Amino acid sequence: MQWIQEKFAPAPKKASERAVRHQDEPDATPAQDEVFQGAPTSYASAKESMAKKKQEKEVFKRPKQPAHQHKYSTANFKISHRKLNMLGRQISGKPIDHAIMQMQFSEKRASGRIKSMLATAKLHASVYKKMDPSKLIVSEAWVTKGPKQLKRLEPRGRGKFGQTSEQLQQEKRKMRLKRIVSAGLVPTGDYTSLFSRTTTQRNDVAALANTFPAPPIVRTIELDGSLVHVSTTYAVKALEPGQTVYHIALGKDEREKASWIEAKVKGQTRPLEIAHLGERDLPDTHEFAVMLPRKLAVNGTINLVLETVQTHATRPYPAYAAQADPQLLKYKTDLFVLSPYTTLVQRTKVKPSSPDIPSYSTPKGVDEFVRDGSVTKSGATITYGPYYNVGPSTSAEFLSEYQQPVTVHYNYDHPVLEVTKLQRSAEISHWGSNLNIEDKIDLHNAGPLLKGHFSRLEYQSQNYFGRVSAHILSGLTLHLPPGVTNAYFYDLNGNVSTSHLRRTPSVPKGSKAIQHSVLEMRPRYPLLGGWNYSFTLGFDTPLQDSVSWDAANQRHIVGVPVMTHIPGSVVDEAEIQIILPEGATDIDVVTPFPALSSAILTHVSYLDTTGRPAVSLTYKDLTDKHTAMIYVSYKVPLSAHLKKPFAVGAAFMSLHAPSLFRLVRALATKPSPPRPPRLLRPYDLALQLKQLSTDGNVDAAVQRLRSVPRDAQNVPVWNTMLSLCMSHKKFQLAYALFIDMKRRGFSPNIPTFVTMFKGFSQISDWSNHPKQLANAHALFQYYLEYTHSIKHHDPGNIAQLSLTPLVIYISILGTAGDIQKMFDVYFAMDQDGPHAPDRYVFTAMLRAITNHQERAGVMSVRDTAASDAKHVWLQIEKAMQKRPDFELDSHLITATIHALTRGRPADQNLALDIIAHHLGLTRPGHPDSFRLSPHLNYWTLDAALQVCLAMQKFRLCVHFMHLIMDNIDFDRPDVRSLVARSHVHKLLRAHASLAMFASPHESSQAIDILEWCLKHDAIYDIPDLRPDMRTYHLVLMTCLRTGDWEGAIKSFRLMTGIQTDSFNESDGKTSPRVQKRPEGRSLAPNVATMSFIMGTALQTKDSTKSLQAVWLSEYVGFDNLLGDTAAEPYYRASFARALASVVDQLLDDPRTEHRREWFLSLKARAQEVVRTFGRTLRSEKFTLGNQTTLAQEDGAVLFDLAARSSKPRSN
Question: Which of 482, 516, 540, 705 has the most beta carbons within 10 angstroms of its beta carbon?
Answer without folding.
Answer: 705
